[in-house]
Amino acid sequence: MSKTLVKNGLFLTADETCPLIEGYMEIDGDTISYIGKDAPAEGADYGEIVDGRNRLYMPGLVNTHGHAAMSLLRGVGDDLALQVWLQEKMWPNEARFTSKDVKWGTLLSQLEMVKGGTTSFVDMYDHMNEVAQAVELSGMRGVLTRGVIGLCPPEVQQAKLAEAKQFARDWHGKAEGRITTMMAPHAPYTCPPDYIEKIVDAAHELDLPLHTHMSETAREVAENESEYGLRPVAHLEKLGVFSRPCLVAHGVHLNDEEIGVLAKYDVRVSHNPGSNLKLASGVARVPDLLARGVKVSLGTDGAASNNNLDMFEEMRLAALIHKGVSGDPTAVPAAIALQLGTTMGAESIWLQKVGSLAAGMKADFIALDLDQPHFLPASNYLSHVIYSASAKDVTDVWVDGKQLVRKGKCLTLDEEKIKAEFKSRYSRLMEG
Amino acid sequence: MSKTLVKNGLFLTADETCPLIEGYMEIDGDTISYIGKDAPAEGADYGEIVDGRNRLYMPGLVNTHGHAAMSLLRGVGDDLALQVWLQEKMWPNEARFTSKDVKWGTLLSQLEMVKGGTTSFVDMYDHMNEVAQAVELSGMRGVLTRGVIGLCPPEVQQAKLAEAKQFARDWHGKAEGRITTMMAPHAPYTCPPDYIEKIVDAAHELDLPLHTHMSETAREVAENESEYGLRPVAHLEKLGVFSRPCLVAHGVHLNDEEIGVLAKYDVRVSHNPGSNLKLASGVARVPDLLARGVKVSLGTDGAASNNNLDMFEEMRLAALIHKGVSGDPTAVPAAIALQLGTTMGAESIWLQKVGSLAAGMKADFIALDLDQPHFLPASNYLSHVIYSASAKDVTDVWVDGKQLVRKGKCLTLDEEKIKAEFKSRYSRLMEG
């Protein structure tokens, strides 16, 4: 792969030492080889020179929790409580998902994500071979896991676990290293304790991280206490979940002691503000988590509970709601919100050299069209990205130095075919 | 003006009796003359026939509180408390605004608003002749008022009030009726009581409504109590503000009794969720206001405290935050969020025949591009508009039957010239 040069660019690096650079960025293969105010040393033979005028370049966004195929259920059941929504609207429909439904649902979501500036995403779902193949195709980075629900007979539990292990083994490190895998008990309320222990054992055996939903609603916490005598954090700690590197989604209802436990084990929390608000789950204690040194990142959750996959919106929600709810206008300032969506996102899901623009980092970056009223004046581009931008401002996207989106058009996925197939899968499901 | 027909359209009417229509809409001059499943009676001589395939048509959005020229201060001072932000960042800069700054700042904001689907907006600011001329030019609907701050010597107060009255008189009903006016004491904390009384007298004399900021922060409420012995609602009631039709912006900190007073006088509340969260002012009691019959609408506030003018985002925030904060997932459902941005918005600012798509209503409507991943599947377009859409999905905009935006391009305003002039005004301001 030859070198690429972006010239006349404005780079919001998400690097604390040098946040905004006007100048040049050089990409050598899958890596950023130079970024700086001055032109790089002469003599390079560039395969492509990109004119960066009127563009803001920044790291690709990292979406640390989701269920991509659930785009098939976008708008199917709004304004309902989590348990009702799950049990009456989601689970009955999802039970009828075939692997082809998951394929096309996931492809549609990847199309939405990548065109909107997300370059890495976590996916916890079923029929994960389809998801992995979709990641191979799209060129995105995927941290994938077969989420298992244990509310079933032991032989079915066993089969699901075997399938999850097989998937994790088969795909870890594949797609030129863009795919990594995890093990995932769906949640403490959907997996009996002994089943969770078996999944933890498997994660040890495969040397992989764990991912689970945890403490999403007050009801979940209360039921966990009444069923097991422990709140979810102590329950999962007891079952050994935190003996592995671990990413929990939501973490809305946490007390001080629990935050201390998460910090002690370096458990990472995927904050899903849009989903938590929509399902009325509550507002996670993000400023407190950050103050205690817990790594926090952002997830959209599935499109059925969000209802879009716009990571700019999640960064903005994270910056806005914690101010409004705490009464502290300095809570989650723009620079932190950017980190949640980039550097801390990458760290939270164990991605190496991903999340910021600096020499030596992977060339995962995006461009935004600055030539628009809502990006004026040129007062503060960090502020504009967090408080004013949206997914639809993204014009170009690169992962591993490869361009995936050019002038708003996805180069790796066939948008028209995906939309058509998706529509036909949805019709079939609804005829059900 | 000849007739226009939109055929093969999908219409989200914001009319409670018939929310979604697939079919035809006919526009005769400035008015919707027909909307329905079947083609209108034959024989009409259409000046234009619009093919509505892949488009969702809905009423233009109504932004009931803002300060358009403040786009010049977008990104200048984030993550600060309201009083600090006002006193250290906004007022010193605003004091140096000339009428030309207001002209170009307002034009840039109108460009952002109209391209993003807002067709009517409230503006409270200074140099209002420039704002009114900008509304004449853009073709938008403007409810305009010279906001007066009374922290100045009596003769200056007097001059400001005379100017505000003159403006209100000169422009009410102008621009083919698209401009209406109000009188506006800026806030109880910036206007002494006797000055507010004089402004109320002027509103009676001119038979105009009143608009003011009220109960935006807990600090404001506490200071009002300590200075005047009354909370802001009782204070304004005593000064006669509610003896006129009245629109208050924010209304974040209200007790039950105060909500009762607002309901009794039919005072309208412009809810500004983005601004209130960003400035950490708090979360207004919108479900309680609605339950008591108070008319609530949505405002972006100025771009310096939001930081964009995307009314889709305000509708989504209104639908999301009240669920998350109350714990009730049925709070502010999508249908109500749509009303806040359309029908209730128009009613709140006394616009006649504006806010929904129905025969006899003004032809203020917009089109969204449905052929995008985040609008799939075709499960529930009301849900998609509230939970998934953004300003950038808007392709076409009409006000009074006149097309203002076509395929994303504003037909009435010169975008390149406005951006260039805006940049030069900003540079001049920052040079001081």
UniProtKB/TrEMBL annotation, chains A, B:
Top-rank taxon: Bacteria
Cofactor(s) essential for the protein: Zn(2+)
UniProt record similarity statement: Belongs to the metallo-dependent hydrolases superfamily. MTA/SAH deaminase family.
Name listed for the protein in its UniProt record: 5-methylthioadenosine/S-adenosylhomocysteine deaminase
EC number: 3.5.4.28, 3.5.4.31
Keyword Hydrolase: yes
InterPro entries with a match to the protein in the record: Amidohydro-rel, Deaminase_MtaD/DadD, Metal-dep_hydrolase_composite, Metal_Hydrolase, MTA/SAH_deaminase
Annotated catalysed reactions: S-adenosyl-L-homocysteine + H2O + H(+) = S-inosyl-L-homocysteine + NH4(+); S-methyl-5'-thioadenosine + H2O + H(+) = S-methyl-5'-thioinosine + NH4(+)
The keyword Chaperone is annotated on this UniProt entry: no
Details of cofactor binding: Binds 1 zinc ion per subunit.
Record domain Amidohydrolase-related: where: 57-403
Function: Catalyzes the deamination of 5-methylthioadenosine and S-adenosyl-L-homocysteine into 5-methylthioinosine and S-inosyl-L-homocysteine, respectively. Is also able to deaminate adenosine.
